[in-house]
Amino acid sequence: MSDTVFDRALAEAAIQRGTNQSGMRAQNERLVLGLVRQHGALAKTDIARITGLSAQTVSVIMRALERDGLLLRGTPQRGRIGQPSVPMSLAADGAFFLGLKIGRRSADLTLIDFLGGVRATQRRVYRYPTPDAVVAFVQQALPGMVAALAPPHRDRIGGLGVAMPFQLWNWVQALGAPQAEMDAWRERDIQADLAAITAMPVYVQNDATSACGAELVFGTGERPSEFLYFYVGTFIGGGLVLNGQLFLGRTGNAAGVGPVPVPGPDGRMQRLLDVASLSVLADAMEAAGESSDHLWERPDHWQVGKAVLSAWMDAAADGLASAILSASSLLELEAVLIDGWMPESVRAELTARTQAALLRLDLSGVTPPVVRQGTVGAQARSLGAAAIPLSQRYLIDQNAAWRET
């Protein structure tokens, strides 16, 4: 591990220091696993230096994690003096997690390994979501996913995370769904229903917050310690990371950016979700005589007229830029990340147009954040859902507001 990486790791205030006191083994194990996940393979001397734990304590922890199948021993690295250091990395087969994304147009059930690699995924597209349809989908898809794992690994599934929009019954008009069927979400305890059929811990979190969590846990490249995250789905949502931690807020719905007021083309204020959502693009396509059905089926291959797509990106970028300026006037954000259910080329262009739109605004007194693409991609919500039980069981608590049955 280079001195530059060491210096960065030592400077990160969000990483909690370890403790050598007895009774804190579980927290120290989470700390070690979190560091290896963030920085890659590390030797015990690296971890002792970053955490302040004694070499003996780190050795005990890493031997236990290796014995439990969570860490893998690498090739010894010989230095100039002393014993060779042995880098330890995460074991992909050490644990598995399920993530269920309940969207307004589709549901995805995904099985990931300890590294975040997708082992299996299934998708169900619908006109609007109902509790019965979601439960039936999980009942149908889950057995095959579990059976695909080697028998010794089937007992290593650590739980099911659910990423879903809160208060689905309030989106009836936008979805064109019957009020009576959507009202079923008011009374049904989807968490309890899923726990009953899966026989495992179930955690529920806002879908866009979960997508932001996926960026935090599985994202690649430099991770800013403060960033605002946008996920462009049927309706745009967001998440917020402060001091390296996912900030969930009092009800778990912090950074729900959809209702943020932004100027419209005529100067009148409107909601960000009314300009920067895929539902808006779908409406524009239908108005132009283009079918929008394929938008909800695959994120990697859109068939959208250039004029329609460009007009939507311009309006979305202007709205995003205004929302970013408002957020930056309250928070000193390092970066803004834009991700969503869209082809990589569209995400890149939307990001570039948003950056340009932000620089056209009056930024007096504001240090504009860097606007860049998210690194997880279209599956961020389902991966973020699976990251909930992973974080709950194996990472330092990040102000978790999910609920466990």
Q: What's the SSE blueprint?
A:
Layout: H1 3-11, H2 25-39, H3 44-51, H4 55-67, E1 71-73, E2 88-90, E3 96-102, E4 106-113, E5 118-125, H5 131-148, E6 157-164, H6 172-175, H7 179-182, H8 184-187, H9 190-198, E7 202-206, H10 207-218, E8 227-232, E9 237-242, E10 245-247, E11 261-263, E12 269-271, H11 278-287, H12 306-330, E13 335-340, H13 344-360, E14 370-373, H14 380-394, E15 403-404
Parallel strand pairs: 3-6, 6-7, 8-13, 13-14
Antiparallel strand pairs: 1-2, 3-4, 4-5, 7-15, 8-9, 9-10, 11-12
Helix pairs in contact: 2-4, 3-4, 5-9, 10-14, 12-13
Structural features, described:
It is a single chain. This protein is of the alpha/beta class and 405 residues long. The chain has 3 domains: 3-90, Orthogonal Bundle (Arc Repressor Mutant, subunit A), CATH 1.10.10; 94-211 and 382-404, ATPase, nucleotide binding domain (Nucleotidyltransferase, domain 5, 2-Layer Sandwich), CATH 3.30.420; 222-374, Nucleotidyltransferase, domain 5 (2-Layer Sandwich), CATH 3.30.420. 40% of the residues lie in helices and 19% in strands. It has 14 helices and 15 strands. It has a 6-stranded mixed sheet with strand order 5-4-3-6-7-15, with helices on both faces. A 5-stranded mixed sheet has the order 10-9-8-13-14, with helices on both faces. A hairpin with a 4-residue loop joins strand 8 (227-232) and strand 9 (237-242). It is globular and about 70 Å long.
